[in-house]
Amino acid sequence: MLKPLAKAGILVEALPYIKKFSGKTVVIKYGGNAMVNAALKEAVIIDVILMKYVGIHPVLVHGGGPEINTMLERLGIKASFVQGLRVTDAQTMEIVEMVLAGKVNKEIVALIQRFGGRAVGLCGKDGGLITAKKRLEPTDIGFVGDIVRIDPALVRALVEQGYIPVIAPVGAGENGEAYNINADTVAGELAAALAADKLVLLTDVAGILRDQQDPDSLISSLRIGEAPALIEQGVIKGGMIPKVRCCVEALTGGVGTTHIIDGRIGHSLLLEVFTDKGIGTMVVQ
Description:
285 residues; Carbamate kinase; 8-stranded mixed beta sheet; 10 helices; globular
């Protein structure tokens, strides 16, 4: 148990960051183990609510791959992937939309409200938030979409009214059809559309490591010009590549700073936003 003086010291350290980010928008990609582990899930939600109460405007974009897989298995539908992308036929898309927009999204909203926040759940179909088109490269894998346009008006209206928007990464095509979109991509492009001060991606790794076997080789700050060489060298590889590209695109679109942090650590959001050292890798211009 912390002594009162230690608690006071923590608040004093946080004060400059509260002042700096008050009134600013922070887009958070919520996924990985932080969505599966009950204790971590509660820690993320409490962090988000605290941010809202000190004047920051958090916007959550969530994934839900494990829940989709569970539902497909329950219905006897085999999940398949091409280069990391889910093959999404019409039947699978119905399940994806049901799980992401109907189940996972509303569970997050309910949890925020249970801990004293106010939240509204959305998907890309709501208010014309995300207009999408079918992705055809590297091959046609069904209702997997690329973002054509983001209209952040509804998100801004909710933020101004004191709500925390919670967004499922489902977009709408020209004829109203649903498309499954990568949640990192949605978070990055939404952050740019909102002119967010920060984009934070919660992951299941410590950040970008120069040596995957050495946890002390964490790259705490990465300039976007350094990213291509690190990808070529194999330092940035696998699932980290789209996350870094997402950060680069967000920064290019006007986002202040981007962060890839370890969602396996309790209260990782508070550690990143409100402490001197922070955690994970910050990707900057």
